[in-house]
Design brief:
Two copies of one chain form a homodimer.
Chain A (H helix, E strand, L loop, with lengths): L1 H14 L11 E10 L4 E10 L4 E10 L2 E10 L4 E6 L4 E6 L14 E9 L7 E10 L6 E7 L5 E8 L3 E12 L5 H4 L15
Antiparallel strand pairs in A: 1-2, 1-11, 2-3, 3-4, 4-5, 5-6, 7-8, 8-9, 9-10, 10-11
């Protein structure tokens, strides 16, 4: 009888499984777009994300106040610096990075808004189960809404309120687990063929 | 040799398969949210979609200019009428429907923006292959951007420009192919238990 009760509880627990806050895989590569409510800023970027080393690489193409731009950023959160790499001018600018590293995923104080299927569950390959969470930004700066996949905790979108742009939405796509070229997320300066033979000693 | 060339062409054709405009399944049920750039309107709705009969049913809950509302609409495009059903007051208002039926999916004159995976292709159940298309609204009223799944042509989102609200975004989810309760998309007036025995002759 005790075993029956235990099994019934286990079954009830399994059936009642609710989504939980989660951390995204520590190594991710992919692409994202950022768009803003007031249409002042729009960005497309390829990204490399390394939560183990607390670093990111962003290859950006965008439009700010009707001016297009391209940027190549390397963000080293542990060292609180970022590098702006200009391939055209062959320059690299070192900039203080004041924010702390924020791992991708859902923080533990977020509230579940709901679980839905994007697309359809009626056929194979037609749908994706995702969880959407909401919460408050630090320092009561506004709200955020974050969607990740149920399986894998892969980022789908993050929207948050900003003073400068109104709502800002990041949409992630073409994400793969891992980083195909670790070199690209480690080098603190651009390396050409010759620099491989002329490294600083 | 001819067979080899034919096979090579076939292979090249298969490898080079580009997404094509598509029509969504003629019967769909699901849910959607509509949100607007100027934040004046926000709607959550359950929908029934019947492209064969050119009709839709919308059970809406929303917020317009900081006033919440609930609506139950039946849209009969062939007959150019819609019905606003008020369950609380047990009334049904007949309203002319001036727009033509627009099947869900991608119209033939749309331009492909790109094909991406929402989520990730690194693990099972982690990703969804979608195609995003852009085009001009009728009468040059602005642009639209529409995303559907590669497999099944299930609607994911539609964004378009409006004069009243700026950009308006419809996000579809929990879609299933078919209509579980055909009654709900056909009845032109609400039917209670007694009306089953007191139908007009």
């Amino acid at each position: 009888m005790k075993i029956f009760v235990a099994l019934a509880c286990l079954l009830a627990g399994c059936l009642a499984q609710r989504p939980h806050p989660c951390e995204s895989p520590p190594l991710l590569s992919g692409a994202l777009t950022a768009s803003t409510q007031n249409e002042k800023l729009w960005v497309y970027a390829k990204y490399l994300y390394d939560a183990l080393g607390q670093r990111m690489r962003l290859f950006e193409f965008g439009n700010l106040d009707n001016q297009t731009f391209t940027y190549d950023f390397l963000l080293l959160y542990k060292e609180h610096v970022m590098y702006e790499i200009n391939h055209h001018n062959r320059t690299c600018k070192k900039i203080p990075l004041k924010v702390d590293f924020q791992p991708l995923g859902i923080s533990k104080d977020a509230s579940l808004l709901g679980q839905v299927i994007v697309g359809s569950s009626s056929g194979p390959g037609q749908g994706l189960l995702v969880n959407t969470w909401i919460g408050d930004l630090p320092n009561k700066e506004g709200k955020y809404m974050s969607t990740v996949t149920e399986f894998g905790c892969i980022p789908v979108s993050v929207a948050f309120q900003t003073k400068q742009y109104g709502w800002m939405v990041f949409s992630y796509f073409n994400n793969i687990i891992g980083i195909s070229d670790p070199d690209a997320s480690t080098d603190e300066e651009p390396i050409g063929f010759f620099s491989l033979f002329h490294r600083k000693n």
